[in-house]
Amino acid sequence: MKYWLMKTEPGCFSIDDLAALPEGTTSWDGVRNYQARNFMRDGMSVGDLILFYHSVTTPSVAGIARVAREAYPDHTAWNPEDRHFDPKSTPEKPLWFMVDVQFVEKFASPVPLAALRGVKGLERMELLKKGSRLSVMPVTQEEFEIVCRLGRE
Fold it and tell me: For 122, what's the count of Cα atoms within 13 Å in the CB-facing half-sphere?
Protein backbone atom coordinates (compact mmCIF):
# COMPACT_ATOMS: atom_id res chain seq x y z
CA MET A 1 0.00 0.00 0.00
CA LYS A 2 1.11 3.53 -0.79
CA TYR A 3 0.08 6.86 0.68
CA TRP A 4 -0.74 10.13 -1.04
CA LEU A 5 -1.87 13.69 -0.47
CA MET A 6 -4.36 15.24 -2.88
CA LYS A 7 -5.22 18.94 -2.82
CA THR A 8 -8.55 20.49 -3.64
CA GLU A 9 -10.17 23.85 -3.13
CA PRO A 10 -13.00 23.26 -0.64
CA GLY A 11 -15.23 25.80 -2.43
CA CYS A 12 -14.85 23.69 -5.57
CA PHE A 13 -14.95 20.21 -4.00
CA SER A 14 -14.62 19.47 -0.28
CA ILE A 15 -14.40 16.35 1.83
CA ASP A 16 -18.06 16.94 2.73
CA ASP A 17 -18.89 16.91 -0.99
CA LEU A 18 -17.07 13.59 -1.35
CA ALA A 19 -18.82 12.08 1.67
CA ALA A 20 -22.23 13.13 0.31
CA LEU A 21 -21.82 11.35 -3.04
CA PRO A 22 -23.31 7.90 -3.67
CA GLU A 23 -20.87 5.41 -2.17
CA GLY A 24 -18.71 8.46 -1.30
CA THR A 25 -16.91 8.01 -4.62
CA THR A 26 -16.00 10.28 -7.53
CA SER A 27 -13.43 10.71 -10.27
CA TRP A 28 -10.48 13.00 -9.53
CA ASP A 29 -10.35 14.81 -12.85
CA GLY A 30 -8.77 18.01 -14.08
CA VAL A 31 -5.17 17.39 -12.99
CA ARG A 32 -3.05 19.28 -15.51
CA ASN A 33 0.46 18.91 -14.11
CA TYR A 34 2.67 16.22 -15.62
CA GLN A 35 4.30 15.13 -12.36
CA ALA A 36 0.96 14.92 -10.54
CA ARG A 37 -0.49 13.02 -13.52
CA ASN A 38 2.44 10.59 -13.40
CA PHE A 39 1.86 9.93 -9.71
CA MET A 40 -1.77 9.06 -10.44
CA ARG A 41 -1.10 7.13 -13.66
CA ASP A 42 2.03 5.23 -12.63
CA GLY A 43 1.91 5.10 -8.86
CA MET A 44 -1.61 4.82 -7.48
CA SER A 45 -3.26 1.48 -6.85
CA VAL A 46 -6.72 0.56 -5.61
CA GLY A 47 -6.71 0.70 -1.82
CA ASP A 48 -3.94 3.27 -1.47
CA LEU A 49 -4.82 5.85 1.18
CA ILE A 50 -5.03 9.60 0.57
CA LEU A 51 -4.74 12.61 2.85
CA PHE A 52 -7.55 14.87 1.60
CA TYR A 53 -6.18 18.42 1.69
CA HIS A 54 -8.17 21.66 1.47
CA SER A 55 -5.87 24.21 -0.15
CA VAL A 56 -7.66 27.55 0.34
CA THR A 57 -8.72 29.77 3.25
CA THR A 58 -7.01 27.80 6.04
CA PRO A 59 -4.98 25.17 4.18
CA SER A 60 -5.43 21.94 6.11
CA VAL A 61 -5.76 18.18 5.90
CA ALA A 62 -9.49 17.51 6.27
CA GLY A 63 -9.57 13.72 6.30
CA ILE A 64 -8.88 10.49 4.45
CA ALA A 65 -9.93 8.98 1.13
CA ARG A 66 -8.80 5.88 -0.72
CA VAL A 67 -8.08 5.09 -4.35
CA ALA A 68 -11.16 3.27 -5.62
CA ARG A 69 -10.14 2.90 -9.29
CA GLU A 70 -6.71 3.05 -10.88
CA ALA A 71 -5.83 5.66 -13.49
CA TYR A 72 -7.82 5.94 -16.69
CA PRO A 73 -8.01 8.66 -19.35
CA ASP A 74 -9.46 11.98 -18.17
CA HIS A 75 -12.28 12.60 -20.62
CA THR A 76 -12.73 16.22 -19.44
CA ALA A 77 -9.66 17.05 -21.53
CA TRP A 78 -11.62 16.20 -24.69
CA ASN A 79 -14.61 18.44 -24.02
CA PRO A 80 -14.21 21.99 -25.39
CA GLU A 81 -16.95 23.12 -22.98
CA ASP A 82 -15.04 21.89 -19.92
CA ARG A 83 -12.64 24.19 -18.08
CA HIS A 84 -10.05 21.39 -18.17
CA PHE A 85 -10.15 21.05 -21.97
CA ASP A 86 -6.82 20.35 -23.65
CA PRO A 87 -6.88 20.13 -27.47
CA LYS A 88 -3.62 18.13 -27.44
CA SER A 89 -5.31 15.24 -25.62
CA THR A 90 -7.50 12.87 -27.64
CA PRO A 91 -9.30 9.59 -26.92
CA GLU A 92 -6.76 7.87 -29.17
CA LYS A 93 -3.77 9.52 -27.43
CA PRO A 94 -4.89 10.60 -23.97
CA LEU A 95 -2.53 13.03 -22.31
CA TRP A 96 -4.27 13.32 -18.94
CA PHE A 97 -5.47 10.69 -16.49
CA MET A 98 -7.67 10.52 -13.42
CA VAL A 99 -8.40 8.08 -10.61
CA ASP A 100 -11.54 7.47 -8.61
CA VAL A 101 -11.40 8.31 -4.92
CA GLN A 102 -13.68 7.19 -2.11
CA PHE A 103 -14.44 8.85 1.21
CA VAL A 104 -13.01 7.11 4.28
CA GLU A 105 -13.03 9.59 7.16
CA LYS A 106 -13.42 13.26 8.00
CA PHE A 107 -11.12 14.40 10.79
CA ALA A 108 -12.69 15.72 13.98
CA SER A 109 -10.42 18.73 13.55
CA PRO A 110 -8.77 19.63 10.24
CA VAL A 111 -4.99 19.74 10.59
CA PRO A 112 -3.78 23.17 9.44
CA LEU A 113 -0.66 23.45 7.32
CA ALA A 114 0.87 25.72 9.97
CA ALA A 115 0.39 22.99 12.61
CA LEU A 116 2.27 20.46 10.46
CA ARG A 117 5.41 22.58 10.40
CA GLY A 118 7.80 21.59 13.15
CA VAL A 119 6.10 18.26 13.90
CA LYS A 120 8.69 15.55 14.50
CA GLY A 121 8.60 13.05 11.64
CA LEU A 122 7.27 15.53 9.06
CA GLU A 123 10.54 17.38 8.41
CA ARG A 124 10.89 15.88 4.91
CA MET A 125 7.21 15.89 3.93
CA GLU A 126 6.83 17.14 0.35
CA LEU A 127 3.88 19.38 1.25
CA LEU A 128 6.08 21.34 3.66
CA LYS A 129 8.92 21.99 1.23
CA LYS A 130 9.32 25.55 0.05
CA GLY A 131 7.70 26.05 -3.34
CA SER A 132 5.81 22.75 -3.28
CA ARG A 133 2.69 23.28 -5.39
CA LEU A 134 1.79 19.80 -6.64
CA SER A 135 -1.86 18.84 -6.29
CA VAL A 136 -0.99 15.15 -5.98
CA MET A 137 2.06 13.96 -4.07
CA PRO A 138 3.32 10.89 -2.25
CA VAL A 139 3.62 10.77 1.53
CA THR A 140 5.37 8.15 3.59
CA GLN A 141 3.49 5.76 5.84
CA GLU A 142 5.00 7.52 8.86
CA GLU A 143 3.88 10.95 7.60
CA PHE A 144 0.41 9.58 6.91
CA GLU A 145 0.12 8.09 10.41
CA ILE A 146 1.36 11.27 12.11
CA VAL A 147 -1.14 13.47 10.24
CA CYS A 148 -3.98 11.02 10.99
CA ARG A 149 -3.11 11.03 14.67
CA LEU A 150 -3.20 14.84 14.70
CA GLY A 151 -6.55 14.89 12.89
CA ARG A 152 -8.13 12.46 15.31
CA GLU A 153 -7.04 14.32 18.47
Answer: 18
